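Q: Here's a chain of 254 amino acids. Please give me its 3D structure as tokens.
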Amino acid sequence: MTDITKASRILADAFLNHELIDPLPADIAPTSFDEAYDTLDATLALTGAKQAGWKLAVATRAAQEKIGAEGPLVGPLLDGRILAEGAVLTTKDLHFPNIEAEIAVVMESSPAPDATSSDILDHIKSIHLAIEIADRRYHEKQDPIQTLADLNSTGYFVLGAEIEGWRDLGFIGGTVTTKSNGAVLATNDDPEAWPEIFGGLEYLVGFLAKRGKKLMQGDVITTGACALPTISPFGKIEAIFDGLGTVTAEIKKV
């Protein structure tokens, strides 16, 4: 039987102490996405971290069907971990830096609980190129339910340049490449493998409404990986969006 109190305490301690842990014991680990969300919420509360936005993972319909999820998996972006273009981190800050080229949204105001994707456009302040550097607290990669409980693998987030004229652009279809020290980590030129950016926002609004929450002014939302997430222990990190621009960061080896 899931014990959210015990599970969240283990996960919160791992986050706060920057330690790696073994899988949660089977007798306390969440066994469903709903239990994982309850564990995530309890873990976040125990850490005392301030939330500054939201991250969507498993952001394509094909990926969601594969794991039996009804939509993207939702986690927090944390205050103090949303960084500017060219940010420098070290190998002491991260366990398993998973590099993801993403499109991020900054909210101007709160959409209604039943807002559609077209409604949400009028509540957006800006859209940006970004790099998510996801991380986990487990020694070994876990299944989606345990990953979700672990703050949905939240790590650090690099908010890059604003995309000018984003309303008139077709995001889907451009090639996206991630690199570390000049070597290609992943590349994607398949529109079907891009996240559904505005559809993801619509899902998020409804998801939050069911939990008595809403998007707030200033919230940063990252909408899912545009190329295969790839671990890179250290180096100069680039996310290159053909026709749109590049975001960079660095993980220094110490």
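Q: Can you summarize the key feature?
A: The helical segments are 4-17, 33-47, 61-67, 117-120, 144-149, 197-210.
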